[in-house]
């Protein structure tokens, strides 16, 4: 997609640290545009304070993302070779701007502002399908290959300027951004930082097919374009980088409308209770000011609710409960939660997130036992893809400060991590569970694994070395049992692997 999207696919909503990572990445061959290249950027994403791992929103995104991957796989867009080579991970970014971006290596980023702005999962699917198609069609690699090694530092300066301009719209920041971008060389290569119009058309066409064959309503593609075009007219103050990186040309809107006309006539896609609540959650988690939080709460008044559909009522009440909880007004938050629970007739997925919100509120008020009770009754039937319940239940068990609960949390997370070893948050919670049981060796190893999953191999090696030292100390005291010996063997093997990855990472960064 065009405008603020650089050759490596990162959009204007990224931070300056990410741009610096891109400069390091340009030292590599253009043919490498895969996991190592993308990891150099993803590593900076994980370190950025705007990166957010919210299991509830993450599960919602995955419920949209996985069908898109399956559709791309079935259509032949996602080949087995490509699927194995890339990470295919989606990251949440704590930004109120409407934006999404694709990175080398199959990493995608979604701003909270995008989730809160769209009206349905179908509109969100249209954006994700488009970004997915940029990766599967190798647009990023093709752009880098076209540019070769031409002016990487000047490209970096251009990216930094665009990032600065996108982060805020005040005059001083715009002046700073313009200063960074001044120069004939930067102006000359600006067009090379954009995906070509042909690539945009291809991503539209392929993304539309991926989205519709995944079961999403095709009009979501059109309404998303129309929504962004309207936002461009009314709110073009720098807060909508997606508009600049993805120009809403008449041609693209017409193409989407023409595709839709080939299908049977359908009404507008309604907002579901699930989406309305997730949009409200994204709005609160984007860290708006106190005035916005109060506005979110005020929307849940009786008059406004009476005029809204049940789905939108659920979103308003959910948002109000979260906004009051954010302000630590727990009594008011409970009242809104009670009204939300009294709505009834919510879809199963929506009932799940309401229960998670109730447990989240209980945990925020210091009642970990209640949070466990709310989630534990469903623990035996937690779906395989219900990461949010698993993580929150484990966090609540650890918060009770009872070793028996810590043991239960560690046991459940071990099962999850055997299937999902790249889950850094799960490793961190498991580390806390082991600490609660007094198992320092496994706690240190879990911390190390979390750092490794965030691609911070240096920190991971340091933690594995600490675990190795502790294992030797325990063994010297004759206290290392059979399970401890197995753990020590795993630590030794992982340390060797991570030291190798750290060396490769250092070479990638150009560090001697």
Reconstruct the topology from this structure.
Elements: H1 16-25, H2 35-47, E1 51-52, H3 55-75, H4 80-85, E2 89-93, E3 100-103, E4 107-111, H5 112-117, H6 121-136, H7 139-147, H8 152-167, H9 171-181, H10 184-189, H11 197-213, H12 219-235, H13 241-245, H14 250-261, H15 273-285, H16 290-298, H17 302-306, H18 310-326, H19 330-341, H20 348-364, H21 368-376, H22 387-399, H23 403-419, H24 424-436, H25 440-453, H26 457-476, H27 482-508
Parallel strand pairs: 2-4
Antiparallel strand pairs: 1-2, 3-4
Helix pairs in contact: 1-2, 1-8, 3-6, 3-22, 6-11, 6-12, 8-9, 12-14, 15-18, 16-18, 18-19, 19-20, 20-21, 20-22, 21-22, 22-23, 22-24, 23-24, 24-25, 25-26, 25-27, 26-27
Describe, in short, the structure shown.
The protein has 512 residues and is mainly α.
Tell me what the structure shows.
This protein has 512 residues and is mainly α. It has 27 helices and four strands. The chain has a four-stranded mixed sheet, sandwiched between helices. A hairpin with a 3-residue loop joins strand 3 (100-103) and strand 4. Helix 15 runs parallel beside helix 18, helix 20 (348-364) runs parallel beside helix 22 (387-399) and helix 22 (387-399) runs parallel beside helix 24. It is globular.
